[in-house]
Amino acid sequence: MIKAILIFNNHGKPRLIRFYQYFAEDMQQQIIRETFHLVSKRDDNVCNFLEGGSLIGGSDYKLIYRHYATLYFVFCVDSSESELGILDLIQVHYILQEVVMGGMVLETNMNEIVAQVELQNRMEKSEGGLSGAPARAVSAVKNMNLPEIPRNINIGDINIKVPSLSPF
């Protein structure tokens, strides 16, 4: 069962809050702060499931979330809910964000909406792949078997003279 749906920005400011279990107002604010703290400190390329915080039910509850650009979509659920089913539901909420923003309809062309969602997914995948790029580049350069360091680099009409460098 879904206990709460929380959507907040990167600074923890709530954008949509729905509790399906009664909590006093001050307790709701504590849950929002704790949930934001738990999900915002996690790296974007780790699992989107974690045990609920101490305020929302502890190990009997799960937080299932996605981070899109400047928003966190978080569902607080009990153990009877399917993690993948909730992630699919979050995707629907994300698509809704592409259609309506600030009470105004942004786009009604379904092809354009789908294209934007696919673009967002591709960007997320490519960003994850780039995180290890610097280390891979250094490793590739160190493993190159060059008989000597090149002194001149010619690319088309461009000539680059390389100054003398010390070896790695």
TrEMBL record:
<dbReference type="InterPro" id="IPR027155">
    <property type="entry name" value="APS3"/>
</dbReference>
<keyword id="KW-0968">Cytoplasmic vesicle</keyword>
<keyword id="KW-0653">Protein transport</keyword>
<keyword id="KW-0472">Membrane</keyword>
<dbReference type="InterPro" id="IPR016635">
    <property type="entry name" value="AP_complex_ssu"/>
</dbReference>
<protein>
    <submittedName>
        <fullName>Adaptor related protein complex 3 subunit sigma 2</fullName>
    </submittedName>
</protein>
<dbReference type="GO" id="GO:0030123">
    <property type="term" value="C:AP-3 adaptor complex"/>
</dbReference>
<dbReference type="GO" id="GO:0006896">
    <property type="term" value="P:Golgi to vacuole transport"/>
</dbReference>
<comment type="similarity">
    <text>Belongs to the adaptor complexes small subunit family.</text>
</comment>
<comment type="function">
    <text>Part of the AP-3 complex, an adaptor-related complex which is not clathrin-associated. The complex is associated with the Golgi region as well as more peripheral structures. It facilitates the budding of vesicles from the Golgi membrane and may be directly involved in trafficking to lysosomes. In concert with the BLOC-1 complex, AP-3 is required to target cargos into vesicles assembled at cell bodies for delivery into neurites and nerve terminals.</text>
</comment>
<dbReference type="GO" id="GO:0005794">
    <property type="term" value="C:Golgi apparatus"/>
</dbReference>
<dbReference type="GO" id="GO:0030659">
    <property type="term" value="C:cytoplasmic vesicle membrane"/>
</dbReference>
<dbReference type="InterPro" id="IPR011012">
    <property type="entry name" value="Longin-like_dom_sf"/>
</dbReference>
<keyword id="KW-0813">Transport</keyword>
<keyword id="KW-0333">Golgi apparatus</keyword>
<dbReference type="InterPro" id="IPR000804">
    <property type="entry name" value="Clathrin_sm-chain_CS"/>
</dbReference>
<feature type="domain" description="AP complex mu/sigma subunit">
    <location>
        <begin position="1"/>
        <end position="92"/>
    </location>
</feature>
<dbReference type="GO" id="GO:0006886">
    <property type="term" value="P:intracellular protein transport"/>
</dbReference>
<dbReference type="InterPro" id="IPR022775">
    <property type="entry name" value="AP_mu_sigma_su"/>
</dbReference>
<dbReference type="Pfam" id="PF01217">
    <property type="entry name" value="Clat_adaptor_s"/>
</dbReference>
